[in-house]
Design a protein that fits this description.
mainly beta, four-stranded antiparallel beta sheet, 1 helix, globular, RCC1-like domain-containing protein, repeat
Length: 237
């Protein structure tokens, strides 16, 4: 990660600050002529939005407002010009989570559906389906969004992205991973890339009384947080 975003809350309203690299406009300071900032500066363009979540990774930035609007800026996921001013991604969809990788992003809607943005390096985004027509949305607004294949009928409650791999947790406590697998970060027992979500078998470390709480992805690794008491062999009671 080359830059940092900080969201402050106060009596005079929310304020988002950024510092670090701005080579792709990811600090939201309205110009790409400022290549980097050593001290926090306000990110502009959120005067009418109450922000609840901010995300920064690679050359990308994103923020989610209290009413479910998603703003993105920095390096474009579509291969077009960089975006120096935060843009509302879609006015017809409501989001509650976002996760950013180097070349892709995952978005979670309030209905538990996972959508995605960006490139397909190492199968990070699988073979996606366009969602514009299925949702009666205009192509111009949502044609850049894709539906993650292989998760139909499963409500997702949490998403995470690494450099070029992804992971999700369903409401049933299952973990699915896909994308770049060179370092075993998909947890599938091999180092193969996967172009569609695969279920991660945790029976050897979790029993029926344990549950998965969160999944986290780093550049080339993944770890989960769950309930239970560890045994000597590393499994959880």
């Amino acid at each position: 990660m080359r830059h940092t975003l900080v969201l402050t809350k106060g009596n005079v309203g929310d304020q988002l600050y950024g510092f670090g690299s701005n080579k792709r406009g990811q600090l939201g300071v309205l110009t790409d002529k400022i290549r980097s900032l050593n001290t926090p500066q306000p990110c502009l363009g959120f005067e009418s939005a109450e922000l609840v979540t901010v995300i920064a990774n690679g050359d990308h930035s994103a923020a989610i407002s209290a009413d479910g609007r998603l703003f993105t800026w920095g390096r474009s996921f579509s291969g077009q010009s960089d975006v120096c001013v935060p843009e509302c991604l879609s006015s017809s969809l409501s989001f509650n989570q976002a996760a950013l990788g180097w070349n892709h992003g995952l978005l979670l809607t309030g209905d538990g559906e996972v959508l995605m943005l960006g490139g397909r390096h190492h199968g990070a985004l699988g073979e996606p389906e366009r969602i514009a027509h299925a949702r009666n949305c205009s192509d111009s607004e949502n044609s850049h969004l894709r539906k993650v294949p292989g998760l139909d009928g499963r409500k997702v409650v949490q998403i995470a992205t690494g450099a070029e791999h992804s992971a999700v947790i369903t409401e049933d406590g299952e973990i699915y991973t896909w994308g770049w697998g060179e370092h075993g970060q998909l947890g599938l027992g091999d180092t193969d890339d996967q172009t569609s979500p695969k279920s991660v078998d945790l029976k050897n470390v979790y029993n029926h009384d344990s549950s998965i709480l969160r999944v986290y992805c780093g550049s080339g690794f993944t770890f989960v947080v769950g309930t239970g008491r560890p045994q000597e062999d590393g499994s959880l009671l």
